[in-house]
Amino acid sequence: MSGIKKLAGQTLWYGVSSIAARFIGYLLVPLLTYSEYVSPADFGRQSLLYSAIPVLSILFTYGFETAYFRFSSQEAYKKTIYSTSFFSIVISTILLSGLLWIFRAPFSALIGFADIPQIAIITIGIIGIDTLNKIPFAKLRQEERPIKYAFVNIAGIFINLVLTWFFINYCPRTLANNPDSWTGNFFSFSTNPIVYVVLANLIQSAITLLLLSKEILSVRLTFDTKLWKEMMVYALPLLIVGFGGIINETFDRLMLKAWLPGSDIFKNEQVGIYNACYKLSILITLFVQAFRMGAEPFFFKQAAGQEPQKIYARVLKFFVIVLSVMFLVVSLFLPIWSYLIGPAYRSAIGIVPILLLANIFLGIYYNLSIWFKLTGKTTAGSYITLIGTAITIVLNFIFIPYFGFIASAWATFCCYGTMMIISYNWGQKVYPVPYPAKKITAYLIIAVLVFLIHKAISIFVVDFWWQTISGMVLLIGYILFVARIEKKELEKIFLWQKT
Predict the structure, then answer these.
(1) Confidence at residue 290, expressed as pLDDT on a 0 to 100 scale
(2) Among 161, 182, 244, 292, fewest CB within 10 Å belongs to which?
(3) Can you give the pLDDT at residue 1?
(4) Which tens digit of pLDDT belongs to each residue from 315-339?
(5) What is the rounded (10 degree) CA torsion for 263, 266, 270, 271?
(6) Does the predicted model carry a pTM greater than 0.85?
């Protein structure tokens, strides 16, 4: 159990940093959705931009983060892995950023901002600087330094929030009351508000790079060509995995814009509404992200120990338990969570439970994917991701014209559910792990049933407080039910009694 406790501790640290950072960052949603200066169409365009950026980020990093963890556990490469990885990323970032700069006009049109060319320039800067941050961040994770990781992460997001508030709220209000105000040096009503949002992001990225300067300056002037070639062979299939994952995660916004009938303004509004409600699944995505931060280096280290499969099985079980509780925390109290977004964006609130379950499936898939990362069969991950991508594209193409963002939510659910099932069945043949599949499935089904029971209660009991109380009772009941079943294991983990 010591391994699980260690992972839980690291996940807690990464979770605290991710939750704090994401919470601060999430304040951007009400800041923008409640702003008089930012329309739903503007918010929708910004959502589309931030759906395109991760695609380029995958290309810029080409799977080297995971390759870094894979090879850093090998004694022969410990002295050269960091410098080799960092210099590879630096050189490729310079080349790719240069190409984007040369073709910035078509790039502007591709991301939907041909009318605002400065967006493309700022975006290139964001992608390039964020890419340079990747390997130093990976070094912090590999060396199990979550406190420094948390500080840098939170500081950057906080700066982004303050700057966005300054540009979007303070400047326009001050300038409206006093046209001669000093804020006129930073703000103009003729400039699209999205420019200021991405400018704040660029400054955040640059300050993050500065905060990681100690890690960057520790790079040795060495480059191991043999190691680099091995890393590339391992990482390139992960590039396909990354592309497919980003398409599955963010392209539904782009597909909504492309395949929804109606005017451009209507399409952008629908994308903005969908994206705002998607943010309400933040509790699940935060935990999944925090878990990945700690789990990826942890899994590779455990592979060298005795019976790592048993540890992986226990980790997945408790991972699902935590996610099922989080699912209920959000879905049972949606009326409360809905206040995090503006009233104009709440028409899609019904898709939130679907997206929560979809992200649970994605989290389980991340756990299961350890089999092809450990065995070096990363091409298998490519096939699984491509299947998920095909499902995403086909379902969105067929159903978006009829059901809009509801189709996108169900497409996400089907995509991640399919990837999870395929990875489990395939992985058990190549790298068997004794996952308690029946128990995990039961926990998820019971959690969904609890949600449906509360939904039925809400139909007959319309009073907000009674709905909230009934949700609390059901949530506590579920937690006590799981705690009773897992009593012995929980006692071992939390040392409630000697084992």
Answers:
(1) 66
(2) 182
(3) 46
(4) 899 889 989 999 999 999 988 888 8
(5) 60
(6) no
Q: Is the pLDDT of residue 101 over 60?
A: yes
